[in-house]
Amino acid sequence: MSQGYIGKRVKKVDALDKVLGKPLYSVDLHQEGMLYLKVLRAPHPHALIKRVDVSKARALPGVVKVITEADVPWLKTYGLIFKDQEVLVKEKSRYLGDRVAVVAAEDEKTARQAIKLIEVDYEPLEIITDPLRAMEPQAPKIHETNQAAFEHPYNTGNVLAVDHLVKGDVEKGFAEADHIFENTFRTQHVDHVALEPEAGMAEYDAETDTYTLWAPCQWTHDIQTDVAKVLGIKVDQLKIVQPEAMGGAFGRREDISVHIILPLMAKLTGRPVKWVMTRHETMIMMTKRTPMTFKLKTGVKNDGSITAWQSEVIGDTGAYASTGASIVHQAMYVSTGPYNVANVKGVSYTVYTNNTYTGAMRGFGATEAAFAYDRQMDCIARDMGWDPAEFRLKNAYRVGSRTGNNQLLTTSVGTVDTILTAREHFGTKGTPSAPHKKRGVGLATIMFGCGYGEGFPDHSIAQVQVTDEGRILLRSAAADVGQGVKTIMVQIAADVLHLPPELIDLAVNDTATTKNAGSTSATRQTIFSGNAVKLAAENLLGKIYHRAYQELGRAYPELSLAEGDVILHGTTKQMTLGELAQIARAKGEPLAAEGCYFPRTDINYENAQGEVVYLTFTFNTQYVEVEVDTETGQVDVLRVVAAPDVGVAINPAGVEGQSEGGVAMGMGMALMEDQVFKEGITLNPDLATYLVPTALDVPEIKTVIVESGDSCGPYGAKGIGEPAMIPTAPAILNAIEDAVGIRLYDLPATPEKVLAALKAKAAEGGK
Amino acid sequence: MTVYFAPSALTEAVAYKKANPATKIIAGGTDLLVKFYEELDSLAGLMDISRLAELKVVRTGEEVFIGAGVTHEEIADHPWLQENVALLCQGAAEVGGPQIRNRGTLGGNLANASPAADLAAPLIALGATVELAGAQPAALPLEDFFTGPGQTKLQPDQIITGVKFARPGANQGGAYLKLGKRKAMAIATASVAVLVTLEKGCLADLCICLGSVAPVPRRAKKTEDILRGQKLSSLDLGPALVQLQAEISPIDDIRGTAQYRRQGAEVIFRRALLQAINNLGVEVNG
Fold this sequence. Notes:
The complex is a heterodimer of chains A (767) and B (286). Chain A is α+β, with helices and mostly antiparallel strands and 767 residues long. In chain A, 27% of the residues lie in helices and 24% in strands. Chain A has 3 domains: 34-125 and 198-276, Aldehyde Oxidoreductase, domain 3; 292-453 and 604-763, Aldehyde Oxidoreductase, domain 4 (2-Layer Sandwich), CATH 3.30.365.10; 459-597, Aldehyde oxidase/xanthine dehydrogenase, molybdopterin binding domain (Aldehyde Oxidoreductase, domain 4), CATH 3.30.365.10. Chain A is built from 18 helices and 28 strands. Chain A has a 7-stranded mixed β-sheet, with helices on both faces. A 5-stranded mixed β-sheet of chain A has the order 7-15-14-13-8, with helices on both faces. Chain A has a 4-stranded mixed β-sheet with strand order 16-24-25-28, with helices on both faces. In chain A, helix 13 (485-497) runs parallel beside helix 14 (525-552). Chain A starts with 14 loop residues before the first helix and ends with a helix. The mean pLDDT of chain A is 95. The termini of chain B are far apart. The relative contact order of chain B is 0.12. The mean pLDDT of chain B is 95. The chains are: A alpha+beta (767), B alpha+beta (286). Chains A and B meet through helix 18 of A and helix 12 of B.
């Protein structure tokens, strides 16, 4: 039972400092005598690099160091899963963001000038931008060394991974169906548009042969491991310090950006170095949401029950793997959504191209999949004459359902509740504001598996101790990317220890003094670091009680803890926590404890079946109302009602914040965001041409929290980060179809596409 | 080394520009600082005219003058302008977002010469003249000022001081509409300004200027000819809309295809025309 800080709108612990502008972001970091880095990117998206001449750049006054691959041939390759990425390219470029040279100069201006003085001779190769072209046998190989270990006709060198899912007998399922529905859906390249660009600072200490890196990371320890491997050093030679504040992450800060080049250049120059990417550079160089094509085939009986579902997914991972293969197979795994299907068959292909490489972004495949499955469900409902909500209710997961991965859902399944709650709070649609406008309502219902899942070792460790001053010091490496995990951890520690949150301090987050908390991704920190903190705090509470018992000679119920004091009931005797901590420390048993949450998941990759493939699932239904301008194709989102099932809301304000941000992000994906490539070159690498919704575009968002409880997270909580955005894009496109009867299969639904579909529909009707 | 100079009087600015013709003029910086981001040191010099009081003047009356240093927000919020030239205020209110409107100026919007400039189309529809300071003061119709994307007739020794136009009469009404991909901070996919003159139930005169559908803000004069003199009670837009297509030459770019721009221009032109007429209290359908 909660003691009073759970389920409360506790103010974010870093809110005031952020409003006052106190915390330093990476861009703000500064050291005396530091150098500025700039990077020369590839001259062509796919080319053999024949010659790089840096002599003029080296001769420029103010330039301290210029390096190419030839200067650091000992560097290893890197990558989150497959180590397929070079720090500096050796023989060829595979996308426009590949790095050819790095300059360190006394100031940024000189570094910029030096970059322009570097000459590169290259021999262009065919630029592969379409995954279907990449899969053709005669297509040139982007990675000569790709030795994917599978037998498949598509394994022609550019296919990074092929994954399968088999549940039941899909052919038998189709034979049982009265109706078959086949549709193809496509998602696009989306940028994370974190407010803070990739940036950081590093220094090297020659005496101890150690490096310090200040740069944002979603998982400090994993980046530390990867960087150490590339540099050929031991992990404890590199300390990564998480900057005080991070301007967003959304999955991208799981990937290496500045993290290798900064410590490398700090050592090579013997000076502190800083590197801040421009927006233009981050748009071209850094990961994107993986574009995917979903070919879905669904068999349905006359009574509306689904008998079979077949999915083929092709994902464009771009020039490098990052986590692309996992994202694409996860999209395929969850491509039946939260809907009961006995017979499922899926296959996914992750393909290299010369586009900007892709990686984790809010949803990790589940967002793309939901666009496909929730459009598919809506199309089926409309074609069969079902009310879209009723059709979902008919097929929605309940306790006892088995997922596509064949996981039995035993508890905390809020699918139906989210649909009913969102529908009730949504009410009915209004009347159009002009004769040429039409209104529509759409919904989407999604699920998201929290945690890495699939048997990937997944854990978080937290430490707490009582200081001599009677305060609690909480150590965790969990990255607060703005979502609020710091606050969640403080609430939990306060709750367990019967202390006001003000008495709890968070230690500096660095790899030297914290233990691995895993990534702020997979919607896992509330569950993982929340549980770790809860376990640590409970262990600490036990030590406090034990020490108090030894010192004061009483036990519960005569002894209790309140507001930082150990109180003996029935006497005036009491002791502060600080006094108790000092005594305990003097006796060699300090009041310090650790908690680790390390649950197990499993999967059989042959058929993607398992018992606990994901730990628990967050469900979310969103209803949206849109107004479509039938003459211009412009779509206004008028209002959104979101009903996420988070198990238990540890901080309702935090859930609402995530929900609102998620909807805004989902709106961007639905209506406007699209990184446009032409021959591997980004045509819109800035925020004047790559558009995201503004405050004027985002409507009122009402979040009604559903608490199905009983999850594996602390107090029954589940995560909300990713599922907050997942239903938005399909709900909007479903609403557009409701408004004007056009069936859109591709994202984003730009005014141009909407108008073209309207005209095509009119032409069809005119026949 | 980039030389920065901030004159305190227009005469000083003119003399400096004459002596340093390569110097770029900066006021709000909302275009220049973006265009030369990370490249400011490549500029020969910057002359900051934001302190010139002469350029911050708005003179109202039968003849209206708006100084080049007046910001978009000042135009959008100006009560007299709202009352008398609402289409210009609509254009100013469509520029970027609040931060850009508070820094960006009329002079900069014209000098930058974007085919999408939100002030250009309404001012051309109003028949505005652009006033230039230099060795000799000069003035030319704004309609003739733009020569291509980012290009104008402004000479290296000249400075835009403002625009002048006649206050629309009681029988004149206007509207400015813009098609963008989002509701703020959007560069127009297509835009249109219309000023109509109504007499005795007729569309006695009109001026149409479109943005983002040609290399420069484009008057649709032949479309005007077709509509001029038509009775409001039997307004026939059909031939005018056909003609409009012949007078624009949009291109495909990241903001939209030529085809969509054509479709959009037609829609917003029709809406702007009807809105301009309706703004005079006359109900028409078209």
